[in-house]
Design goal:
Elements: H1 2-19, H2 33-41, H3 43-56, E1 62-64, H4 65-70, H5 72-75, H6 81-87, E2 92-97, E3 106-111, H7 113-128, H8 130-143, E4 148-150, H9 151-156, H10 158-161, H11 167-174, E5 179-182, E6 191-194, H12 205-217, H13 237-248, H14 266-282, E7 287-289, H15 290-294, H16 297-300, H17 307-312, E8 317-320, E9 327-330, E10 334-335, E11 338-339, H18 346-388
Antiparallel strand pairs: 1-3, 2-3, 4-6, 5-6, 7-9, 8-9, 10-11
Helix pairs in contact: 7-18
GO molecular function, one term: RNA binding
InterPro entries: PORR_domain (IPR021099), PORR_fam (IPR045040)
Pfam family, one: PORR
């Protein structure tokens, strides 16, 4: 009798765990300093790239220095433009020119030869990787509910996925077999629509990984997520059991039709995790700000409480709070603070960082020579004073 009662109790507990409301399952956020450092380290690169783009969008790629100074608040530039130029030599050249014919010459900024060479190389890398960009745009559309996404929303994520500034016009016109621009770009109701479904693009990173492992081992591997809980991370027993049962559910491809799934079901959560995993995998840095992901809630059927999903699946994702904004990071993409498999378009960032570091080395050398000159002058002055005495 006792054993039967115990069995009933265990079965009842298992039922409660399986049917537990997702919203009731909480995970305490735990800081990951290594992944936070990755975001902190990129702040300088991102700030410099924003300033470069501000000048890039100007006619003839030149701007009066005082105009750029007025835009500091919008650019979130914490220092004066002149200080910025001094700290990052090699980006711009300063020259005098007139804003209007009858006005006095004022300082203008234009690209340095090195920065222009970088921008030319950037364009070459983008052109060489155009098939990858086409595949990315197709994948974003193929995962969406109606296979159509607002052009304005796609422009907002061009940096995250490595799309060039003119990608909507260029890719749309060169690949009409894949995309169609509905409406006029720049208008409120303009969209990019998928024209044809390419089955080669309809394979997620998780599915391709399982396929490769199957070919290597000769054993059929089931698609599944990599779980990397950080050291010292603790989950309550109820949450561990729910995650274990959830992981046993069949993988649902982000490219499959999910219209039949209940929004509150574990299966829908499995599919949504797959969508986020794929989106972060397609991104250049394998991380995207949570508010940016939220812009696509309608297209990808994210629930209003979707940010909690990253916390529940802390072995798959990490949410950084650096910079006062939540950023979803794909854990498996990093070995401590190093990005493992870099996107081919990541080379653009690497080359820009090299350009910045070259300028920083020149600045240090300039400051060293200045210090040595001051020390020589002081030594010569001391020698003259001693001779007079």
């Amino acid at each position: 009798m006792n054993s039967r009662a115990s069995l009933i109790k265990l079965n009842h507990r298992a039922f409660l765990i399986q049917s537990a409301s997702i919203s009731n399952l909480k995970v305490v956020w735990r800081k990951d300093p290594r992944l936070d450092n990755v975001i902190e380290h990129d702040k300088l690169w991102y700030l410099c790239s924003k300033v470069v783009k501000e000048v890039l969008y100007e006619p003839n790629h030149v701007i009066p220095l005082r105009y750029l100074e007025k835009r500091r608040e919008r650019l979130r530039l914490p220092i004066k433009v002149t200080t910025f130029l001094d700290r990052h030599p090699g980006l711009f050249e300063t020259y005098l020119d007139k804003i209007k014919p009858k006005t006095q010459p004022v300082p203008f900024l234009r690209f340095s030869d090195r920065l222009q060479a970088f921008l030319d190389e950037k364009k070459r890398i983008e052109e060489a990787n155009e098939p990858l960009l086409v595949a990315k745009l197709c994948k974003l559309l193929m995962m969406s509910k109606d296979k159509v996404i607002s052009a304005d929303k796609l422009v907002h994520v061009k940096r995250e996925f490595g799309f060039p500034d003119d990608f909507l016009c260029n890719l749309g016109s060169r690949y009409p077999e894949y995309f169609r621009l509905v409406g006029c770009f720049g208008e409120e109701k303009s969209f990019i629509e998928l024209v044809s479904w390419n089955p080669d693009f309809a394979q997620s990173v998780v599915e391709l990984r399982a396929k490769e492992e199957s070919e290597l081992t000769g054993i059929r591997m089931r698609p599944s997520f990599n779980v990397k809980l950080p050291r010292g991370f603790y989950l309550k027993k109820e949450m561990r059991e729910w995650i274990r049962d959830w992981m046993e559910l069949p993988y649902i491809s982000p490219y499959s039709d999910a219209t039949h799934l209940d929004q509150a079901s574990r299966e829908m959560e499995k599919r949504t995790v797959g969508v986020f995993h794929e989106l972060l995998s397609l991104s250049i840095l394998k991380r995207i700000a949570v508010p940016i992901l939220g812009k696509f809630s309608e297209e990808y059927r994210f629930s209003n409480a979707f940010p909690n999903l990253f916390m529940r699946h802390s072995g798959i994702f990490y949410v950084s709070l650096k910079g006062g904004i939540k950023t979803a990071v794909l854990r498996e993409a990093y070995n401590e603070d190093k990005l493992i498999d870099k996107d081919p378009l990541h080379a653009i960032k690497d080359k820009f960082v090299e350009l910045l570091e070259e300028g920083h080395r020149e600045r240090k050398e300039r400051e060293r020579l200045k210090r040595e000159a001051v020390q020589r002058e002081m030594a010569e002055a001391a020698a003259r004073n001693s001779n007079v005495a």
